[in-house]
From TrEMBL:
SUPFAM superfamilies: ACT-like, Metallo-hydrolase/oxidoreductase. Residues 124-197 form the ACT domain. This is ACT domain-containing protein. CDD domains: ACT. Coiled coil: none annotated. SMART domains: Lactamase_B.
Length: 560
């Protein structure tokens, strides 16, 4: 217990003390403290009644569930130091006092902090109370009678005597109406600041957690036919909420990262764009067929958001290189069946890396049609640890955990049950273009080699190269920015904003980009005499011919 000078009472407990007791010039005593408060209806009434019964007059009160769901800051006035001490002793015995100035740790014996899902049950008020002991307890009892859970409350008797700002969550609009009716009958003077769906922007409601703000804002953006998907998302909101809060904490430690509000805004944008483009709103962009050999035609499939998928069609089978977000899978299958494609013909799927926008269809294709899925051996660890920077040791590794979990849940990514590796090819070089050759595979008359990335973008990254036919499938490398539509640019900017960079190691990524450009420029020179055009099939934007990019010319200029 510490004492301050009578002339300079603090605005609250210092960071070094959980409570502070000081004597005023008039001889009364003032106690600043922090107290536990559970996130449930009636908790405020219990606390207020306890204080009133112990002759403690509440002078300041601050509770914001979004900041500390189980912690309230108080200033109470007492007639004597003895009364103050007895109050503290009793609160200690009741478990109301935290042992340190932090949010109380999770206690399995305590009820979980619930997620508010009904915006119609929210109500924000300004209430004017009479200047006498016990009025706060009377208000709290009215709230308890209607199962109204206080999620935000402020009161400062010095700055605004009698004025209480309060936000409560009830289970439905009928409870809100009943609560307002009783407040009217009680003779209390109050003003409704925000009520239900018609209250205005949800950002004005103080006390909602980050995930609740996120879900309510998402609900206002999605078309009506997407609300079922939103409800499913809400059911997993506890898990998603932890990921959001983890992301906020990790991003806050990175000076280059965005402000939290911008982070949530961009997550919201990605979710809204993706979920809102499913079902009747789904549109596939098809490029092809491009005849790349005597036996193989190439198609590029692009969903509204996410990465490109490349379909290699032969007489015997279809082979997929990369996929889009998992939430589009059902729509993709329906689209294919309506446009001359059969998902059951996709016997193999080769995935450049385990990001959600490239691996989303792999698991459902395997489950529905027995499609064999081939990826780097580290991909299974990325899925298992839910960290696209797993085992990279970079400063963004922790931040990538939260990013991976968020995108996984929003886009419905599931890991395939069985992931196969790449068979070694006798007679192939150990490296090509500076990248290790892991193995290869055959599609019709095209021989592919699998090159291992140096790890600049994500763990488990590979490139698929057909050197004799000049084809490179490289995921998020070598994107032709000029080919991106405004929609593509907006969508691609979202994950970039969510993290400082979508790359596990940007310096390594830049070096890999230079290596790939140099290699493809050299390959183009070798193929020109054969009349073959080297092409890059990137995960975003359009596929393009290497000769259009002028890489060889730039290399010559650099040499000069």
């Amino acid at each position: 217990m510490t004492h301050s000078t009578p002339s300079a009472p603090s605005s609250g407990p210092s960071k070094d003390h959980i409570f502070e007791l000081f004597r005023r010039p008039d001889g009364s005593w003032c106690l600043d403290l922090r107290a536990h408060m559970l996130d449930r209806p009636g908790e405020l009434a219990d606390l207020a009644a306890f204080l009133a019964a112990n002759n403690a007059n509440v002078e300041r009160f601050y509770y914001n569930r979004s900041e500390h769901a189980r912690l309230v800051r108080l200033r109470v006035g007492c007639d004597s130091a003895t009364v103050s001490g007895a109050l503290m002793d009793q609160m200690q015995r009741m478990g109301r006092l935290p042992l340190q100035d932090t949010t109380p740790p999770t206690d399995p014996a305590l009820p979980e902090i619930g997620t508010i899902t009904d915006q119609d049950g929210l109500l924000s008020l300004k209430v004017t109370l009479a200047d006498r002991p016990g009025t706060l307890a009377e208000l709290a009892e009215v709230l308890r009678n209607h199962d109204a859970n206080v999620i935000h409350m402020t009161y400062d008797g010095d700055e605004a005597p009698g004025l209480v700002r309060i936000t409560v969550a009830t289970s439905c609009p009928d409870q809100v109406a009943a609560l307002l009716a009783e407040l009217n009958q009680s003779g209390l003077h109050f003003h409704v600041q925000w009520q239900g769906m018609d209250g205005g922007p949800i950002d004005r409601v103080i006390g909602l957690s980050a995930v609740e703000q996120f879900l309510f804002r998402l609900k206002t953006i999605l078309p009506p036919d997407k609300l079922d998907r939103l409800k499913t998302l809400m059911k997993s909101s506890d898990e998603m909420g932890r990921a959001l809060l983890d992301f906020r904490r990790e991003s806050g430690e990175d000076p280059e990262s965005m402000a939290v509000s911008e982070v949530f805004s961009n997550i919201l944008h990605l979710a809204a764009r993706s979920i809102g483009k499913t079902g009747n709103n789904f549109v596939m962009r098809l490029t092809g067929p491009l005849n790349v050999s005597k036996e193989v035609d190439l198609y590029m499939l692009a969903c509204p958001t996410g990465g490109n998928a490349f379909l290699l069609r032969t007489d015997a089978e279809d082979v997929l290189i990369d996929t889009g977000y998992g939430l589009y899978y059902s729509d993709v299958c329906r689209w294919m069946q309506c446009h001359g494609f059969d998902p059951a013909r996709i016997r193999r799927a080769y995935v450049t890396h385990p990001d959600a926008d490239h691996a989303g269809w792999a698991a459902p294709l395997q489950e529905d049609f027995g499609t064999r899925v081939f990826m780097h051996q580290d991909a299974s660890q990325v899925f298992a640890h839910e960290n696209r920077a797993h085992n990279t040791g970079t400063r963004l590794q922790a931040l990538n955990i939260s990013f991976t979990r968020l995108i996984t849940r929003l886009t419905e990514l599931r890991p395939p049950n069985v992931i196969e590796g790449f068979d070694p090819i006798p007679g192939t070089p150990e490296t090509m273009g500076g990248f290790a050759v892991l193995g290869g595979f055959q599609v019709g008359d095209i021989s592919f080699l699998t090159l291992e990335s140096l790890g600049g973008h994500v763990a488990g990254q590979v490139f698929f190269l057909a050197p004799d036919h000049g084809l490179l499938f490289c995921g998020d490398y070598l994107i032709d920015v000029s080919s991106l539509s405004e929609r593509d640019k907006q969508t691609l900017s979202i994950p970039k904003y969510l993290m400082t960079s979508t790359n596990s190691d940007s310096r390594v990524f830049s070096r890999e980009m230079k290596m790939l450009r140099r290699f493809m420029a050299e390959l183009q020179k070798q193929l020109v005499p054969q009349g073959i055009t080297a092409r890059v099939c990137s995960g975003h934007g359009g596929l393009y011919a290497v000769e259009e990019m002028g890489w060889a010319r730039k290399q010559e200029d650099t040499k000069e």
